[in-house]
Amino acid sequence: MSKSFAQDLKKIGKFKDWEVIVVSETTGKVCFAQSSPVLQAPKKNKRDARLFVTFRPSEKISNEISTTAGYEFNKNNTVLATSGNNKFKFDIKQQGFAWMTSNKKEKIMVKVMKKGSRIMVSGYNNKGSQTIDHYSLLGFTKAYGTAKKACS
To answer: Model confidence over 69-84: pLDDT tens digits?
Structure first.
């Protein structure tokens, strides 16, 4: 991380298992709620995984959901978020991150995350091994609201 980037990054709140960060870029503010997994499988393989919901007002982007498992996702397998009976597929995988292309699906996933207590994200590495990251949704609703407000 470059020094200038770190100086423009502000943690503006922590809500149970979620935190809110605001980044000031030349193109404008970016606000996001993020969380790290409370549980990872396989356990022996420690990875820097995260789940994000981002707002980029200057690009008219809201509710952008992305995830990283701490490795490059396998192009042939699906990255999937599951909460209860709800399943959400991430369509784009690049540079170790996965995104959805449908804002409609993202809005539904946000609703599910507000009601749920946990969401699991499964992905596959280049060797074809599956990883599952369990995220707690405690504090998500407050973190989401704070991130949204910070960029409105």
So the answer is: 999 999 999 999 999 9
Reference 146, options 6, 22, 4, 1; nearest CA is: 22
Q: Which of 118, 114, 66, 71 is nearest to 90 (CA)?
A: 66
d(CA 58, CA 49): 27
Query: pLDDT per residue over 82-92, tens digit each?
Result: 999 999 999 99
Distance from C-alpha of 66 to C-alpha of 93, rounded to nearest angstrom = 10
**The CATH number of domain 3-150, selected from 1.10.1040.10, 3.40.390.30, 2.60.120.260, 2.60.40.1880:** 2.60.40.1880
All structural domains of the chain with their residue ranges: 3-150
Q: Which residues of the chain have pLDDT under 70?
A: 1-7
C-alpha dihedral, 67 to 72 to 74 to 78, nearest 10°: 0
